[in-house]
Amino acid sequence: MFSLTQTSARQREIIEVVLSNGWEYMRGLLTAGKTENPQIPTPEVLRNILIELGPFYVKLGQLLSTRPDILSPNYIQALTALQSNVSSVPWKEIEIVLNRQLSKPIKAIFSNIEKKPIAAGSIGQIHRGILLNGEEVAIKIQRPNIDKIVQQDITLIKGIAELVSLTEFGKNFDIPKLADEFCEAIESELDFTKEASYTDTIRNNLSSSIWFDANEIATPKVYWDITTEKILVLEWLHGKPILEADLSIPKSLKSTEERRKEITTLLFRAFFQQIYVDGFFHADPHPGNLFYLNNGRVAIIDCGMVGKIDSHTQKILIELLLAIFDLDAQGCAQLTFKLSESDKVDNLSRLKSDYEKILKKYHNLNLSQFNFSEVVYEILQIARKNKLKIPGNLGLYAKCLGNLEGTARQFNPSINLFDEINPLMTNLFYRQLVGDTPLQTGLRTILDLKSIYLKTPRRIETLLDRLSSETFNWNIRLRELEPLRRSIDASANRLSFSIVLGSLIMGAAIISVGSSTQQLSIISSVLFASASILGVWLIISILRSGRLK
């Protein structure tokens, strides 16, 4: 609560913006909202609110668009193309940032910088420049004081998350943790060296491939010697966004349609390698981030939003791909649960039934008409409905596939998705079986088989020895057998006491009949006394048990 009191001015501003976008929503929130199903603005109203609140909330909305496990499809669609309507910062203010960040005067590094930005975003703006050696570069410069504004809003968001966590909705989705994830992602965007590192990683990963010619893919080079936390300097790539480009340049013997098909295949292979092989992928391949260059190469730019997937998750996602194309609801249910961070699922059969419902509408479709990314989004939505906690990186995974497929369909409407994915799937399964080095994988498999072969006979022999001896224990626990066991033990004990009691009486009688000395007479009396005591105890025990009849 203390953190909220520090941002009271910002709170007032937020309330004014929210009220200006519709009192009906606020009235519903205050009078009819339920903690387990809180009311939120319509997608269009929410988008307008985020834009008016400024850069931080625009980024927050863009990150929310990567979480189909939290929001429904209409909200995802509204937030995916969210762009802040921000004006560019005057050159005088940008020049101050450059002078503070650069180790040398501007003129000692750049022969020229265009003062008018070519693009302005919520975090920074991009200027075109020329180095002293004549190389053209793109200079991304952070907006002045944006870090202070973001920190203020982060404090406010975390304070609100603490309040929301008290509701049923907040508990189901672990809102404080979600807020921390979003805030951490936004803070990382304030450090341009991280984006530079992401760019380098993707560039290096795509520099070689068995699926495509690496020379056909371009990612801008990073100028590390002049890149700082607030300045990112990248190689300038000459070209146009892929949907606006003239594919006849450079001149080629191939038709435009043939070139479209080649580029579509190239994009699918480049992104499938990033996701399913490298485990590090560009998460926002919308048309503005994919360029067709004047030299005929395809460029992937703006690597600020990336996703990471470990090898275990990669294997499950590959199996999920196959389950989706096979319309296997049972497989989708089991694999989604394996992907989730939940310890259990309330009702696996209901989860399967939900998948059957969404997969039914694809039964009569040709695979060329199959909207793969839509199915992935729906799968994550069902996980949300069944209260399965899905890792945040799977939202980026779904966003990447959605943007990739959407861009591909705009660029090449005649695309057959199955034709693009099928050979990659085959190769991915082959890689799982034999790995990148078949010889090494084969030798490792032989060693594993040898280990199993050597261990198995000994284990079977041990099992047989235990079965034929009294040392073998069956660790079986059945609640219904426990009372029965106690009852049998009690009956056996009583039977034993009855036998002992009878023996004592018979022994005493024999000794008494044949006794001729005082000593034998004493022994006989002791046996009778013992038999009497045991007999009385046995009768009392039976009467207490209530099982006399």
Give descriptors for this structure:
549 residues, five-stranded antiparallel β-sheet, 21 helices
Ordered list of secondary-structure elements with their pairings:
Blueprint: H1 2-5, H2 8-20, H3 23-32, H4 43-53, H5 55-64, H6 73-80, H7 91-101, E1 110-113, E2 119-120, E3 124-131, E4 136-142, H8 146-164, H9 168-173, H10 175-189, H11 192-205, E5 217-218, E6 231-235, E7 239-241, H12 256-278, E8 280-282, E9 290-293, E10 298-300, E11 306-308, H13 311-325, H14 329-339, H15 348-360, H16 372-385, H17 392-411, H18 417-434, H19 438-467, H20 481-514, H21 518-545
Parallel strand pairs: 5-10
Antiparallel strand pairs: 1-3, 2-3, 3-4, 4-6, 7-9, 8-11, 9-10
Q: Could you explain the architecture of this structure?
A:
With 549 residues, this protein is an alpha+beta fold. The chain is 60% helix and 8% strand. It has 21 helices and 11 strands. The strands form 3 sheets. Strands 1, 2, 3, 4 and 6 form a 5-stranded antiparallel beta sheet that branches. α12 (256-278) runs antiparallel to α17, α13 runs antiparallel to α14 and α16 (372-385) packs antiparallel against α17.
Ranges where pLDDT stays below 50 over 5 or more residues in a row are 29-37
Biggest β-sheet description? 5 strands, antiparallel
Q: Provide the gyration radius in Å.
A: 37 Å
Q: Number of DSSP strands?
A: 11
